[in-house]
């Protein structure tokens, strides 16, 4: 059974978020990425694989090296979701505030 990954799974892990931030600055090979983390190169490679499957990075082979490059357009899905939630909750909090003001004024 194949696991379907999405951008939310990618950003759920702090190590993957850190890798995304690093690659947003410049492309790096997997060894350069691994140097920044207290885990094995194999563990970093698994994080890179998840990011690649989610479409947040692309991995290009150059000789024996694998260079990772950020492709952050997939984060637009997260931005849209956050905007929707913000709009929803802003409306709910405004309605709650109005209700509380009415009850406060009714008690006067």
TrEMBL record:
SUPFAM superfamilies: Winged helix' DNA-binding domain
Family matches, as InterPro entries: ArsR-like_HTH, HTH_ArsR_DNA-bd_dom, WH-like_DNA-bd_sf, WH_DNA-bd_sf
Start and end residues of each HTH arsR-type domain: 1-90
Alphabetical list of PROSITE patterns matching this protein: HTH_ARSR_2 (PS50987)
Domain of life assignment: Bacteria
Pfam families documented for this protein: HTH_5
Annotated protein name in UniProt: Metalloregulator ArsR/SmtB family transcription factor
